[in-house]
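Translate sequence into structure tokens.
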Amino acid sequence: MRALVWNCRGVGSPLTVPQLKESVKLHSPELIFLSETKNRKDVMNKVRLQLRYDRLFVVDPIGRAGGLAVLWRNELQICKVLYTDFTIELLIERTGARDRWWLICVYASSEDQIREKQWKVIEGRKSLWGQNWVLAGDMNDILSNDEKWGGCRRPERSFHTFRDFVNKNQLIDIGFEGIPWTWSNNWEEGKEIKERLDRVLCSRQWRREFEKAKCLHIQNEASDHAMMLLDTDSCGRKWKRRQRNNNAKNEIRELRQKLAEVQSDGHANRIGKVRELKKRLEEAYKREEVFWGQKARIKWLQEGDKNTKFFHASVAERRRRNNISCLKKGDGTWCDSEQEVATEIQGFFQELFTSSNPQQIESTLRDIPLVITDQMNEMLVRPVSELEVRNAVFSPQPNKAPGPDGMTSAFFQHYWNVIKADLLNAISSFFHSGQLLKAINETIITLIPKVDSPVLVSQFRPISLCNVVYRIISKILVLRLKPVLNCCISQNQSAFVPGRQIIDNVVIAHEFIHCLNNRRFGTNTFMALKLDMSKAYDRVEWLFVLKIMEKMGFCKKWRDWIFKCMSSVVYSFNLNGEKRGIVIPTRGIRQGDPLSPYIFLLVSEGLSRLLSSAMVRQEISGLKIAKHSPALSHLFFADDTLIFCKANKEEAAKVMKLLELYGKASGQIINAEKSSVFFSKNTKEGEKAEILDTLGGMREAKQSKYLGLPLVIGRPKKQVFSYIKERVIRRLGGWKERLLSNAAMLAKQLWRILTRPNLLVSRIVRGKYVRGSSFWEVNINAGDSWVWKSFLSARELLEEGVRLRVGDGKQIDIWEDKWLLDQEYGKIRSCKPQPCHIQRVHELISDGNWNVDMIREVFEKEDCQRILDIPISKCGGKDRLVWSFSNSGEYTVKTGYAVAKDLQWKKKGVCQQQGSSSRNEFKSGVWKLLWGLNVKHKLKHFVWKCLQRILPVNETVRRRTGQGDDRCCCCGERTETLEHMFFFCKHAELIWKFAPINWEGLNEYRYSFWHWWGSLMEAQVRKEGREHIELTINVLWQIWKSRNLIQFNREGRCPGLTSNKAVQEWLEFQNVSIVKMEDDEKGRGIERGPVKWEPPPENVICLNTDAAIKQIGAKASWGVVARCMEGKLRGAWAGCEDRRGIPIVEEARAVRHALVLAKQNGWRNIIIQTDCKRIVDQIRDGKLNDHLAGAVLFDIMALSKDFSSCLFSFVKREGNNVSHQLAKFALKLVSEIAWKESFPSWLSSIAKMDVGAFAPNLGSSVFK
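Result follows.
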């Protein structure tokens, strides 16, 4: 069906009827809805006759205002017509089908208060329309400022009413084709305002049935509103339908049919067959869910939840958004057929991917230094290992879009143990021969719209879908390239380089633009150029990539690998689900290839070096924002470019010359129309015009965005950042807005500036604001930037958890700094004795150990013990800042948020109350249990809402809104509170009677859901207690769903069926979880079984370590056992010291003892086994910031480099029994003990039990 919807602004206009006749002739709508007709039925009947329509329904205007009319032909079956003063509601029956749907024709008021009441009327009437309906017409409102062009931006609160109406009723905007606005005030001289006031909104059910429905905006001259053509069965271009391989759907249909036949059969074995068919049906439903989940690309919904309808809706919406139904050619004409669309796309990309024959490459690269060493090249081209391939296979998200072969990473991950040998051979073949099959590197380009309703090929973003095998090769190359990027990419580039972040560039850009805005006087004027690179990835010249890598020192073998990855590609295109066309490129890199961003970094380094060298030669000046900050000529984040120089014609001309040189060599082109220039405030208008002309017609920018954030931030910050809020709200849809902890995130940036002083952002910020003084004492000045003021607002939070970890002790002030291990205070509590000249911590250290006598003489007993608990580096480790609230010693937003909450409570004085502290501790236990349960995420959120008392039961809705009936919809006897709905309603009581679990012992707590849940938690300690709690949550959820069926659909469900449904879903999820865990373990090669000691390879010594702590008496001991491949003891050592041990520290000390002993015995190839996984993980990742054991970890890393090979392995306690027993024995010692030739019988006996056993390595790291 086609319906024409139009606010005609009066049918009496001389252009209205002719425009309608023209639209009827062009589009043949079966129905026309006209609003604001301003004429009565007799006039509208004449219009009907002129347009040759059969039927008419009219809502007369009030005076000369308003008026609605619907005209339709007899072939359209209208079963019922209802109306209000602003709607006409039509019940339409689809031809040849029994199902019906409602078309609600709307003309909303232009007055906000009246319109708000109209939305409430529609909410009240929607129960008449069921689940299948669509709203179309003039809504007289918009959802955000993105639907408005010209005029002032509307305040965010003005959108709330319409947005809430759409979200509350779960309406879907079907989108549009054509012009993006539907109304214009038609003013001239820059005062024109355009808005999208008219739209089509539909229910989810209607959208599922009319998946192809679309809305076309049609311009006209008769009204200031555009016409809308709603086409429910869009078939303007009949694309060939693709065969969809959803076998699960067909299987479900067949199984349900068989199940019905068997259930009606009276055969004796009927029950067994029914059970078998139900099992197969359950598996088919799971496969269907996985199928649609993969197609929907929804990551934040977990599998195991029946979201098939949601997934299907997501796929339908994505198909609608990505569908290409029409394209405008380069000559301005339109493509009329599928073939023409495919030809236009292929022609565009064939031209784009054809080389421009680069020139002047040598001149462009003359300043590129040789940075890649022979050792780095050896690392880059080493033989590929199974571990590398495995890491590359398991790194991507399993269900990312498949390539031309249709395979996703999920297949390779799931069947890793089966295919790894063949896959390793295929990958090794490339790294050995340098040849890559074209079939492996075949690529499909999917075109993603960059704008709403794109009509040009250039308005699409080409995303490349590569085969998984190629992506594995590409990922291996990336993982090898990453470690050397810091050497070959200058600090001005912060994209994709390990240790650098996008926020660095945002901070630097804001500081430099702030400097330009504050430079109001003087003759030195400066400017910032924000450049837009046109199709940056697609224009990269391959020859330029090879030449710049050669200049940097990359070996030929590596260059050949990269060239083969770029040049062996063959493109085809995904056009509405079909593979079309073919393009063989001679330049360009792919968006979607893991390697492409890193290749582009190398390309952009050519421009970076040109600009840096020009600044060194004083051809351009760069910009220096403070005396102690470095001057900066440019700032890159991938292809986002900012260039800083003096605001004069000479430097502008030099910049353009450099950009031209770079473009000829690399293929890059600057889009002058999208580029802009910021001038310092003291730049004269005449000078600006000359400079802009020199820059090729770039425009001056007063405000712009860089990396998605506004560059200029003045006083009205609410207006500046309103667009971010709008984008978040559009993403969240009907979800309520939540506050985030800005302080915790800001503190993370402060932490980076403090702990990484060599970063470019740290040097700039420190040079401008700190200037040699202590960071903790810096004051806020009036001229400081908004970014810096925001950072300092988080200083109190950071100060709460920052500690100085002792290395050599030379930088730590004993009396002023926080350097003790406890989280609460961190400072020495003892008063400084007089006279006392000891000031620095290193004065308390003697020969790598604490000077115990001096410490006991100077400090009080409690402080003595706190100092002696601190481990000291014996290999020259330095003092460094650590975050005391995380195990890694690195600041995290999660721990920062927790600290921020504690600070907030402290300021309110709540934490000082014992009762409040206990209550908070109890709540913490409640949340910890809830989030750790093995139930669906939506059920956890449901219980959380119940505990927070925000579940929308009738009493809560009435209390918060003052509207609605608060009586229980199920029994109608009492007010529907949370407790009544779950426990006292007769409907709920029946469900609990049928449930297989009974909580009658908690009846006394039913009057408070919080207390009832708190008592329920106690069941977790008993056998199968957690499973019973998980089943209980499913019962609560089904009670809520059953209640909603009665409340909204007037549908009741048998209590027994409700209870059975809860049990069924619980068992289903439990089975899926177990299978998933087993599959994950199987895919990763993890085998369960008894854990024993693992013997080392030949000529390798295995040293097992462990530690023990005795709290009473404050003793800490360690034990080390050395064995060879045959399991024979080669040595055993143990020791004990008087101190309060910290487990992680003592385990690290034991490992350090093992390394020292191995070195003393002259062993060159060793394996260290420990049952402390945290130690192994931190060594493997090279993370030495552990705030407790960091100093010892530094020593371990330093000592491990003295061996030919040193491997660290985690083994469970059962496989580390010998050293464990030895460490426990050592608690009785008064001095260290060693055995080399003969060993105690008890130790030999334990060691013999381990000989010949095998245990898998669960984590390791190798150092040479």
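Note: The chain has a mean pLDDT of 84.
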